[in-house]
């Protein structure tokens, strides 16, 4: 899978310059898989072995699964690199792995090659593992290793097949999108069709999960329901991102900002700020100035982080966040890059600067409203070329 993730990691290492992150949710699911293999599947398939053998096989299998997923995502990432796309990291999480693309592919060929690479690698890996298991078995190799290799061969095959479901943003959905894109030259339409199928597939997963849960497989069923909900959300946000890319294309921060900014003096006290009800005005963000030059930004969070007993003696200059990338943007920044950044950093508003001087505010709310209002016009061919 290739997608975007934002929450905190549990740990990480680096391969080919790509950070590998493992989230706590993956560790939990890995433990559950190891347990269900050692206590359930393996004793059923390979009868008459001691319990320690089942656990050895289960642990080898889960380690192998982690490596298989990382190799699958690495295949996506290295092909993406070959097409000049940057992948920041590979993340193992609740639903497997994801290679995090910084931007969408520029051409249908790049998207197609990148999407196919993962499942193709899993398929080859599955074949190699099956051959290795067969060869080892015929030479009387250890039952534990043969069992783990056989299991991993099956898993990799499943990984290849499942990911090729034509459900965007899964690999097969990306392949489908690339093919429609190639055929019609219309990325937006290709995204909508592929994502619609993604949503349909997600509903199928949810229903399957519910069915499994009703039949007694509660944990497994719940996982499929969650997977379906995750995929549905991912498909919807892809449609949204495609719309944003189209509507905001060519706009700069200064064209989507609200001007008429009011700066506050650095020596104003927090008490004064609150008494005047300023927290409810100016989109909740103010540049703070000392002797006419902006030194920082004050927002509700800065006020609320100050102990109430000290509001009388604390000035805005003391609590404001320093002016910089985190709270402000330059007036010529691309509106799409701005939206990406706000979504990624979970920021609702940014100050717009003109050579260091605050000139306006961009709010997420206004950007989203603009998307909704301009979209029908854009589709009718009216709007910025
Ligand atoms: Zn994949």
Could you characterize what this model shows?
This protein is an alpha/beta fold and about 375 residues long. The protein folds into 2 domains: about 1-250, no CATH class; about 255-380, CBS-domain (Roll). Helices cover about 60% and strands about 15% of the residues. The protein contains 13 helices and 12 strands. It has helices at about 25-45, 50-80, 110-140, 145-165, 170-185, 185-215, 220-250, 255, 270-275, 300-305, 315-320, 335-345, 365-380; strands at about 1-5, 10-15, 20, 85-95, 95-100, 265, 285-290, 295-300, 320, 330, 350-355, 355-365. A 5-stranded mixed sheet has the order 1-5-4-3-2. The longest helix is centred in the first third of the chain and has 32 residues, at about 50-80. It is elongated. Zinc ion binds near residues 1, 72, 118 and 163.
**In terms of structural class, how would the helical and strand content be classed?**
alpha/beta
Ligands, deduplicated: zinc ion
Count of alpha and pi helical runs: 13
**Can you list the strand order of the major beta sheet?**
1-5-4-3-2
Q: Specify the overall morphology.
A: elongated
**Overall structural domain count:** 2
Task: Quote the beta fraction.
Answer: 5-15%
**Major sheet:** 5 strands, mixed
Percentage of residues in helical conformation:
55-70%
* Unreliable spans: 4-11
The helix/strand series, from N terminus to C terminus, equals EEEHHEEHHHHHHEHEEHHEEHEEH
Q: Gyration radius, to the nearest Å?
A: 26 Å
Q: What distance separates the N and C termini?
A: 33 Å
Number of beta strands: 12
Mean pLDDT: 84
């Amino acid at each position: 899978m290739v997608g975007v993730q934002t929450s905190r990691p549990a740990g990480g290492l680096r391969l080919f310059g790509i950070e590998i992150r493992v989230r706590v949710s993956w560790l939990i699911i890995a433990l559950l898989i190891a347990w269900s293999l050692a206590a359930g599947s393996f004793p059923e398939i390979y009868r008459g072995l001691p319990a320690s053998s089942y656990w050895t096989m289960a642990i080898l299998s889960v380690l192998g699964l982690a490596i298989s997923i990382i190799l699958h995502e690495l295949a996506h990432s290295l092909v993406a690199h070959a097409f000049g796309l940057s992948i920041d990291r590979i993340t193992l999480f609740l639903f497997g792995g994801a290679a995090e693309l910084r931007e969408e592919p520029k051409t249908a060929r790049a998207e197609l090659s990148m999407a196919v690479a993962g499942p193709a690698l899993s398929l080859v890996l599955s074949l190699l593992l099956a051959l290795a298991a067969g060869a080892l078995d015929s030479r009387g190799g250890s039952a534990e290793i043969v069992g783990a290799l056989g299991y991993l061969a099956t898993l990799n095959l499943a990984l290849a097949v499942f990911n090729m479901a034509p459900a965007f943003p899964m690999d097969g959905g990306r392949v489908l999108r690339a093919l429609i894109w190639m055929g019609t030259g219309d990325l937006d339409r290709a995204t909508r069709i592929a994502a619609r199928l993604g949503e349909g597939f997600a509903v199928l997963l949810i229903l399957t999960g519910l069915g499994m849960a009703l039949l007694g497989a509660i944990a497994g069923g719940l996982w499929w329901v969650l997977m379906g909900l995750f995929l549905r959300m991912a498909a919807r946000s892809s449609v949204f991102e495609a719309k944003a890319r189209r509507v905001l294309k060519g706009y700069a921060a200064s064209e989507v900002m609200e001007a008429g900014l009011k700066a506050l003096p650095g020596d104003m006290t927090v008490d004064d700020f609150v008494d005047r009800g300023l927290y409810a005005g100016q989109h909740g963000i103010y540049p703070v100035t000392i002797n006419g030059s902006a030194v920082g930004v004050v927002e509700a969070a800065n006020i609320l982080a100050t102990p109430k007993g000290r509001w009388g003696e604390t000035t805005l200059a003391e609590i404001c966040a320093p002016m910089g990338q985190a709270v402000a943007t330059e007036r010529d920044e691309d509106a799409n890059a701005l939206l990406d950044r706000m979504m990624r950093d979970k920021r609702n508003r940014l100050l717009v600067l003109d050579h260091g001087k605050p000139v306006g505010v961009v709010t997420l709310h206004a950007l989203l409203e603009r998307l909704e209002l301009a979209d029908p016009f854009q589709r009718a061919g009216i709007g910025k070329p």
